[in-house]
TrEMBL record:
Pfam families linked to this entry: VWA_3 (PF13768)
Protein name: von Willebrand factor A domain containing 3A
Matches recorded under InterPro entries: VWF_A (IPR002035), vWFA_dom_sf (IPR036465)
Phylogenetic lineage: Eukaryota, Metazoa, Chordata, Craniata, Vertebrata
PANTHER family assigned to the protein according to its UniProt record, in alphabetical order: VON WILLEBRAND FACTOR A DOMAIN-CONTAINING PROTEIN 3A
Organism name: Phasianus colchicus (Common pheasant)
């Protein structure tokens, strides 16, 4: 499952932990009405010890009743969700997911760049494919692998069922791959779309995953236009896994069909991915540089941090107004108020009246 889909059930809004969802029951719009008996317009006022003015998500200002116990509980829930998000980021950053991200679809075609510039990192590419086959492909319905340099080299003529035997055969084929030519990505993409996914309209959950180290031979706008047309209206996405190698691409003495700086390459693939409604994943030997799956989780964590800060602001702003409040109201025990209330209601013992001179004379 993609992080975007994961957040549909685990995001702050899905968990009803959006700050404005929490404050809504105690939020009131300022009221301004004409009072006939006074013959003037009167605005609502704030209770100085219990309410604050707070900017709402739509830019309006609301009068907020600050309920300290609710806000304290809310902040603890936010901290818990942040820990869950950190756990998912760690999960996305290890093993095959560090290279491929989360491979979610049930029908998958893997496009592998074996152009000559990759001669120095073919072992890394093979290892990446091995991890993918071992960890993420067994639960798929079917798959295929297409290697490409100047020409395409498909493993099978069409998609095959994902079974232990077929995965083992695919791995033995991967071990025989040799680098040649440039990056004719368009031919490999066409092969996947028009052969492996020729019945894309009859199936759901279909994905193409590209593992590459550089810019394709074809112009970015040409690829984007093709993939946008191929994916439009179908449950088919193209995802890019860009591997940045330490060695210079020209170290083999091969002049690529197109040259692009790392930044230009990233921009180009982001444009292609956007056209295909896919995800972009950029990594190297040092780790992950950028990942759409991780970025959306980090964004949710930042949102939680922002909500927590606004929550703390509300609490801190209320303190100067309530001098009789404890210094830290969140540390008070929940039962303290109940105990105090019971003690106040207990009947007090009446003291005897003081004797007067007359009463003392009668006692003699």
């Amino acid at each position: 499952i993609t992080s975007t889909d994961w957040l549909k059930t685990n995001g702050l809004k899905a968990k009803k932990l959006n700050l404005y969802q929490v404050l809504a029951p105690n939020a009131f719009s300022p009221v301004e009405e004409f009072v006939p008996i006074l013959q003037k317009t009167v605005s609502s006022t704030l209770h100085e010890k219990a309410m604050m003015q707070f900017e709402w998500h739509d830019g309006t200002v609301k009068n907020i009743h600050v309920d300290l116990p609710i806000l304290y509980k809310y902040q603890k829930l936010l901290a818990k969700m942040v820990r869950i998000y950190e756990k998912r980021i760690n999960w996305l950053s290890v093993a095959s997911r560090r290279i491929w991200g989360s491979v979610c679809e049930k029908r998958v075609v893997i496009l592998v760049d074996i152009s000559v510039p990759n001669s120095t990192c073919i072992i890394h590419i093979q290892h990446s494919l091995r991890l993918l086959l071992e960890e993420q492909m067994l639960n798929k319905d079917c798959f295929n692998i297409i290697a490409f340099g100047s020409h395409i080299v498909p493993w099978q003529l069409e998609l095959v069922p994902s079974q232990p035997e077929s995965l083992q055969k695919a791995w033995r084929w991967v071990l025989r791959l040799q680098c040649s030519g440039s990056r004719n990505f368009m031919s490999a993409l066409r092969r996947a779309v028009e052969v492996d996914f020729k019945e894309k309209d009859k199936h759901k959950s279909q994905g193409i995953y590209l593992l590459t180290t550089g810019i394709p031979d074809q112009e970015t706008h040409t690829i984007s236009a093709y993939v946008a047309e191929a994916c439009r209206g179908f449950d088919l996405q193209l995802h890019v896994c860009l591997f940045s190698v330490m060695e210079d691409a020209d170290s083999c003495g091969i002049i690529p069909a197109r040259y692009a700086t790392p930044t230009e390459t990233v921009i180009a693939f982001k444009e292609i991915v956007q056209a295909a409604n896919g995800r972009f994943h950029w990594f190297g030997e040092a780790g992950i540089f950028e990942s759409d799956d991780i970025t959306v989780i980090v964004s949710e964590m930042e949102k939680a941090k922002n909500y927590s800060q606004k929550c703390a602001f509300l609490v801190e702003s209320l303190k100067p107004r309530s001098g009789d409040q404890p210094a830290n109201p969140f540390t008070a025990e929940a039962g303290a108020t109940v105990v105090v209330t019971k003690e106040k209601r207990r009947p007090q013992k009446l003291s005897s009246p003081k004797p007067t001179a007359l009463s003392l004379a009668r006692m003699v």
